[in-house]
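hi! just following up on the protien thing from before. the input was this:
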Amino acid sequence: MLDFLDSGLTSGLHGWGPQLLSGTAMTVAVALSSFLLGLAFGAAGAAAKLSDSLALRGLAELYTTAVRGVPELLVIYLLFFGGSGMIMAVAGIFGYGGLIELNAFSIGVAAVGLISGAYSTEVIRGAVKSVPYGQIEAARACGMGRWRILRRVLVPQTLRFALPGLGNVWQLTLKDTALISVTALAEIMRVAHTAAGSTRQSFLFYSVAALLYLALTTVSTTAFQQAERYASRGVRRA
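and the predicted 3d structure came back as:
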């Protein structure tokens, strides 16, 4: 019985192993690029929400509410089917009338990064609010300027408070990459879907895809736990 299962697994994966590994690399590339883009959006959004400007706070609130309030797949569809049209419309304002096409990787990173940024905004905003204001006052009393306070006090403390939440955002971003299979980008889900349709062994290839995602999330969890311990070094534990 075990020999039969082993031979079936080997024959089913024959020829698809390299493509699954390539799809895994593509998934990691999209997730990492989207996460970094989301951090940039999140930092900008958190700064806007914490600013004194009513307009900036309103724009940031609109961004986080809209993106978190609609399905992630809808955001991807909007950018995939409407992204090139919007860019061409903007380019037309400046006199450019040529065709502009976006590749699947760029659209996937932009869409997932936009989603990741909405959640990162709230994580970073909450982390900034968690920094004791007494530390800022103490830094000012020591004669530190605004940028030195930002670099030596606010950013390190914010990072320490934000890491657990950012770990959750990373896991969300990693799993959201499965949605960009609709753009025909050859990531894990797209390769698994193509292999399942070609070999008619859907359960096998979707199970392999699940194991690959599980391996990525397990490694990611371990990495973030190590980062949290490193960021919390020297902090007195209750």
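Residues 1-9 have pLDDT under 50 and may be disordered.
Residues 101 and 201 are 35 Å apart (CA to CA).
cheers
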